[in-house]
Amino acid sequence: MDDLAANRHTRVQMLEGIPEGLLECPANRLDTLLEGPSLIRVPGERQPPLFVSVLLHGNEVTGLLAMQALLREWQGRLLPRELLWFIGNIDAARYGARRLAGQPDYNRIWAGGDAPECEMARHLLDYLEHQPLFAAVDIHNNSGQNPMYACVNRLDAQYINLASKFSKLLVYFTKPHEVLSVALSRLCPATVIECGLSGEAQGTAQVRDYLAHCLTMAQRETDIPGDKGLAVYQTVGRITVRDDVRIAFGSPGDEEALSLREDLEGLNFRQLSPGTLLGHCPLGEEVLRVTGNAGEDVTAHFIAHDNGRVVLQRPCLLSMLTRNIHVIHQDCLGYVMQPRTLEQTRIQAPHLSGPAR
Ligand SMILES: [Zn+2]
């Protein structure tokens, strides 16, 4: 798929009502019904609309499947609330790819830039800025084994409430700042929901139920579910592997590769102690890099090398670790997380209720 010429879209196709056949259409055939990135307005009883985005990454189909299931159930009836449904990278979905060669990542185009897709993103955001919104939900999948969780970009009670209705496991992040949810967070309570592996039935059902809840909420809610198991983690670093390094899995022995541990994905969202093995690397210490939120190199703070073993330097929690080598090189190996107490979260809330940073 790397030699396919990608379509470069500069506009969003605006549609009133659901096109014929869309609710039955598989992700890899959407390009037969839609011209490109599309915003579909579906009427409902209450205003303002709920915004839902799917397929910013073409290989993450759970959001599409959940929306199709939900809207099929409501066919012939008025939704409880108006809906604005954004379908993103249908060209990449055609090939089951996160993005096509020649395209930027559709979840890194929402903070300006010169690419045609950044113009498309501005077109959508211009439209949304003149449109009151109830809330916004951006739906993604992980490429590795992770529990289902929700992300927020602001520690504001309405945002945390919205996210916590999907999962009690929350991630707060501000970087990367070019993601859609950061842009949406300036307009209304917004969350990103991460629904496990793409297309799995359990994830699809949970997302469908969550969206049904969002559509039927009469008003925004502000209560934070206290001590009932809510856990908030903050992203403090992004782990990348140097571009030219070959990646393998399993026991060491390959002198020319970074050999990551076989059960790497089993480490996601677990409290890990110093010395936890990530893999083996005879290639030196410059192979993995951890980048902090300000772009600073924090590798030595989190990762140590011990006789060719790559281990954790301090207690931490990792997320989104993946065995998908393509994703590791195209995006990253995973993220370093730190827990936030609810007290910290509450103290922060008033300061963050202004414009998003
Ligand atoms: Zn995604």
Q: Would you list the SSEs in sequence order as H and E? A: EEEHEHHEEHEHEHEEEEEEHEEEHEH
What bound compounds does this protein have?
A: zinc ion
Instruction: Examine the secondary-structure arrangement and name the CATH architecture of the largest domain.
Output: 3-Layer(aba) Sandwich
Could you tell me the radius of gyration in angstroms? 20 Å
**Quick one: CATH superfamily of the largest domain?**
Zn peptidases
CATH topology of the largest domain: Aminopeptidase
What's the structural domain tally?
2
First-residue to last-residue Cα separation: 37 Å
The average pLDDT value, as a whole number, equals 91
Please provide the count of β strands.
18
Count of helical stretches? 9
Q: What profile does the largest beta sheet have?
A: 13 strands, mixed
Oligomer: single chain
What's a concise summary of this model?
The chain is of the alpha/beta class. The chain has helices spanning 62-73, 90-94, 116-129, 157-164, 180-185, 201-216, 299-302, 325-330, 342-351; strands at residues 13-16, 38-42, 44-54, 79-87, 135-140, 149-152, 169-172, 190-194, 231-241, 246-249, 257-260, 271-272, 277-280, 288-292, 303-306, 309-312, 316-319, 334-340. α4 (157-164) links the parallel β6 (149-152) and β7.
Write up this protein.
The radius of gyration is 20 Å and the shape is globular. The longest helix is centred in the middle third of the chain and has 16 residues, at 201-216. The protein has two domains: 13-229, 3-Layer(aba) Sandwich (Aminopeptidase); 234-338, no CATH class. The strands form two sheets. Strands 1, 2, 3, 4, 5, 6, 7, 8, 9, 12, 14, 17 and 18 form a 13-stranded mixed β-sheet that branches. Helix 1 (62-73) links the parallel strand 3 and strand 4 (79-87). Helix 1 packs across helix 6. It starts with 12 loop residues before the first strand and ends in a 6-residue tail after the last helix. It has nine helices and 18 strands. The chain has helices at 62-73, 90-94, 116-129, 157-164, 180-185, 201-216, 299-302, 325-330, 342-351; strands at 13-16, 38-42, 44-54, 79-87, 135-140, 149-152, 169-172, 190-194, 231-241, 246-249, 257-260, 271-272, 277-280, 288-292, 303-306, 309-312, 316-319, 334-340. The chain has 357 residues and is of the alpha/beta class. The site of zinc ion (ZN) has 5 residues, from loops.
